[in-house]
Amino acid sequence: MPQSQEVIEQLESLRGEFDALIAPLTDEQSIRHAQAQFMGKKGKVSLLMKQMGKLPPEDRRTVGAAFNQVKTAIVDAVAQKLDDLVQAAAAADLARTVDVSLPGREYRQGHVHLLTQVWNEAVEIFAELGFEIALGPQIETDFHSFEALAIPKDHPARDMQDTFYIGDDIVLRPHTSPVQIRTMQNQQPPVKIVAPGFVYRRDDDPTHSPMFTQIEGLLVDEVVRFSDLKGVLLHYVRRYFGKALDIRFRPSYFPFVEPGAEIDMQCSFCIDGDPSVCRVCKGTTWVEIGGCGMVDPDVFAHVKYDSEKYTGFAFGMGLERQAMLRHGVNDIKYYYEGDLRFLRQF
Ligand code: DAH
User: Fold this and answer.
1) What is the CA radius of gyration of the chain?
2) Is pTM, for the whole model, over 0.85?
3) What is the DSSP-derived secondary structure letter of residue 190?
4) Average pLDDT of 208-220?
5) Of 10 and 157, which is predicted with more confidence?
6) 307: CA distance to ligand 1 center in Å?
7) What does the pLDDT average to over 280-309?
8) CA max distance for the chain
9) Which residues line ligand 1 (CB under 6 A)?
10) What SS3 class is residue 209?
11) In 126-136, which positions are buried (b, 16+ CB within 10 angstroms) versus exposed (e)?
């Protein structure tokens, strides 16, 4: 057999080989790869053609024509194959049936946690009265948590606010009152702040949790009276509960105020009903919501304020209690368990 005939037959067989190779392929990448294996620089067809030079000159024309034919056939086959893929994809797309009667997928939107709602609302009400927001660390020094608030180390008032000790002088703050101290250390009167935040106690029952939330208030200026305190708290209670509830003060003792008082508000549950069956106020018509008083001169001394010149009031209230009273939540733990059946109600 003449040499040229042999080359032409090899070309033909390579063409068959190529067709068989791409027939099962279903993606462009592998088709292109197959093409390169034959037509690329080191492709099978290309290598074969390198032998053209060895052929007698009179044969080169026929072999060259055969080469071009195979080359065109491969390029066409690739184009055809790719076109088939596009057509098949389009056909599959058209054949797709959509069941428009299926219910749509529900998109559940989250919302602000009840406690955060109370927090925001409380801050907003006080902001309307001109109070600024102050924040302090949850890991506090003993000095800011107790000493500067006139509660020395062996003072019995520490029992009421026993907390978690991280070191001898570092505690998880048992109340937001240390923010009073930090604020006064950093600024001169007039001071008018509220400080919302998490606090920690060694307490655990249906109305107490080891971690809970308070809002602290402090107003210091040249002439601040107890009646100012009453006006602010009365406004707050009425705005937050949306009812003309009254408040009252019961003399009480907190080392950092003098005089000091517990703040009671009229029970929002039975105000329009029968107090004798009310489980919230136990028939008393009043519920306690926090503590307050006029800032003790001892506290001013710790922050180097002149207590001859300045007076001030302070208060602290638990935020969980407020929302419990407004919404009828009967266990403080619901706030922290993350149970959606509870959270979705608010
Ligand atoms: N810090 C007190 C507590 O957690 C509450 C309190 C009472 C805050 C009297 C005050 C205050 O600012 O004047 O029990």
Assistant:
1) 42
2) no
3) P
4) 94
5) 10
6) 20
7) 94
8) 125
9) 175, 177, 216, 254, 257, 260, 291-293, 314-316
10) coil
11) beeeebeebeb
Integer angstrom CA distances of residue 38 from 5, 19, 72, 84, 269 = 20, 11, 12, 21, 87
Report which protein residue has its CA nearest ligand 1's atom 13: 292
Q: How far is CA 249 from CA 44, 229, 236, in A?
A: 99, 11, 15
State the pLDDT at residue 22: 93
From 126, 254, 299, the mutation candidate for ligand 1 (largest count of ligand atoms within 8 A of CB) is: 254
H helices within 24-110, ranges in order? 28-39, 44-49, 57-95
What distance in angstroms lies between residue 335's CA and the mean position of ligand 1's atoms? 22
Beta bridge partners of 76: none
- Helices then strands, each counted (H, E), the chain: 13, 9
Nearest Cα residue to atom 7 of ligand 1? 291
Q: Is residue 175 predicted with pLDDT exceeding 80? A: yes
User: At which residue do the structure tokens 């009667």 appear?
Assistant: 101
CA–CA separation, 125 vs 146, rounded Å?
Answer: 28
Residues 6+ apart with CB under 8 A from 50: none
Residue with tokens 């709602």: 117
